[in-house]
Amino acid sequence: MQYLRICLFLISLKSAAQSVRYDSLWNDPAVETRIREGIEAHRKGDFTLELTHKSGKPVQKATVEIRQVRHEFLFGANIFMLNGFKTAGQNRQYETVFKTLFNTACIPFYWKTLEPQPGKIRFAAGSEEIYRRPPPDVVLDFCQRNDLIPKGHTLVWDNPMWSYPSWFPKDTGAMQPLIDRRIRQIAGRYGESIKTWDVVNEVIINNPNAPLPESYALKAFQTAAAVFPKDTRLILNEATHLWENYRREYSPFYMLVENLKFKGADIRGLGLQFHFFSEPLFAKTLAGHAMTPRELYRTLDLYARFNVPIHISEITIPTLPAGPEGEQIQAKLTRNFYRLWFSHPAVEAIYWWNLADGSAAPGEDKWGGGFLREDLSPKPAYTVLDDLINKEWKTTLTMTVSDSKPLSFRGFYGDYVARITVGKKTIEKRFKLMKGQTNTLRIELE
Asked: Could you tell me if residue 363 is left (phi over 0), alpha (psi between -120 and 50 degrees) or otherwise beta?
């Protein structure tokens, strides 16, 4: 028993030492300064509001309440569990959480489950029910009703478990016409309503048992560029290894992007996944030896060279160990990572992957990667995200006009409502604070 106590004590000391090193990296003044200054410089802008009477004379006295109602930056998750829970109450709770946090949703377009039989495509409501694969029409309708920006995932992926239909031919020569047809069909149905697509997924993680035609990634981008509208974001999405496999411009993913662009692929965005599907990687991260602020920034800086938006496209931050301790660790990592990603000018969107424990792909539930528990109660990571997205990174203020001068403020980019009270009369006006524009609004009052 005494030996066991000594072992546990030594383990606790090692864990504490690792935590100290991890915290010291994230509390480094240089790191904190870059995060704080990056958010201020890249996520906020100045706005001027001029209030006049119809005569053109400035309003001399007014109270103005400014409230941000929507972010320009994209915060999202996959929405694979829409209508996928056992009870109506759970489904409504899932929807409420989604709408509370996010303004964008990733819709499943996996070929294997979208077209389980040749020519019988599950686009529409009433299609065969498949777990974690709601019909795209149903999800798109939900997005449109709730002002969520839809993203399609994914058009081409050489993965036999999730992508290849069971009926897919073995002959690579017969595959390319089917791939081209699939991209054209999807573009024809959703090209005007879904403006962001993961065109090709995980090219570097080769599946030798699921070969695709030569140059399939290049051809997928060429076809997509030809059939989707010009304003569509066409993304190359890659797995988590790219954060660790850093070799500057000789990093495998960097060379892949460079090669595809050289051959004519119209890549309009890069997706960088961030899944902790490795306990050694997670342990190294907590020990301060992997996924450090310096490493994350250098990777983002590297891929920013391509001058296309970066999406942190799939995030799994585990709850390890299971229980309160692991939940607190998950929350701490969530806050650190999100603040760093949000601070970088090249990052356009951040997508958590699975909202709730027990709703991940088979084999991935063991990580406890939701910010909700299986009963959909919130973990501390949910509170962290809610505080960042809906409080710390949203602008709300009240100003008073008392000298006829215009009102100015600095706020986060996005959509706003101004509630203006002059005497006993109150009106509301909506406006946008947008990056790269002169943000001035003149309002004439009766």
From this structure: left
Single pTM value for the model: 0.95
Q: What is the pLDDT along the chain (446 residues), one digit of tens a residue?
A: 454 344 333 334 445 555 899 999 999 999 999 999 999 999 999 999 999 988 889 999 999 999 999 999 999 999 999 999 999 999 999 999 999 999 999 999 999 999 999 999 999 999 999 999 999 999 999 999 999 999 999 999 999 899 989 999 999 999 999 999 999 999 999 999 999 999 999 999 877 777 899 999 999 999 999 999 999 999 999 999 999 999 999 999 999 999 999 999 999 999 999 999 999 999 999 999 999 999 999 999 999 999 999 999 999 999 999 999 999 999 999 999 999 999 999 999 999 999 999 999 999 999 999 999 999 999 999 999 999 999 999 999 999 998 878 999 999 999 999 999 998 899 999 999 999 988 999 998 87
In a domain, 120, yes or no: yes
Buried b (16+ CB within 10 A) or exposed e, 352-372: bbbbbbebbeeebbebbbbbb
Instruction: Find the Cα–Cα–Cα–Cα dihedral 172, 177, 180, 184, rounded to 10°.
Output: -150
Query: Is it true that the peptide bond before 321 is cis, omega within 30 degrees of 0?
Result: yes
The count of structural domains within the chain is 1
- SS3 of residue 158 by DSSP: coil
Is residue 137 a part of any domain in this protein? yes
57-62: list long-range contacts, CB under 8 Å, 24+ apart. Answer: 58/404, 58/405, 58/406, 59/401, 59/404, 59/422, 59/445, 60/401, 60/402, 60/403, 60/404, 61/400, 61/401, 61/402, 61/422, 62/400, 62/401, 62/420, 62/421, 62/422
**Which DSSP string do the residues of 239-285 spell out, in sequence order?**
-THHHH--BTBTSHHHHHHHHHHHTT----EEEEEEE---HHHHHHH
Which structural domain range is residue 202 located in? 72-392
How do 62-71 and 44-53 pair as beta strands?
unpaired
Query: What is the Cα Rg of the chain in Å?
Result: 24
CA distance 54 to 422: 14
Query: For residue 416, what are the CA distances in angstroms to 13, 101, 141, 207, 298?
Result: 50, 17, 24, 47, 34
DSSP 414: E
What is the C-alpha to C-alpha distance for residues 261 and 217, in angstroms, rounded to an integer? Answer: 11
At 421 the three-state DSSP class reads strand
Instruction: Answer yes or no: is 336 within a domain.
Output: yes
Which CATH number does the domain housing residue 139 bear?
Answer: 3.20.20.80
The answer as to whether 417 is a domain residue is no
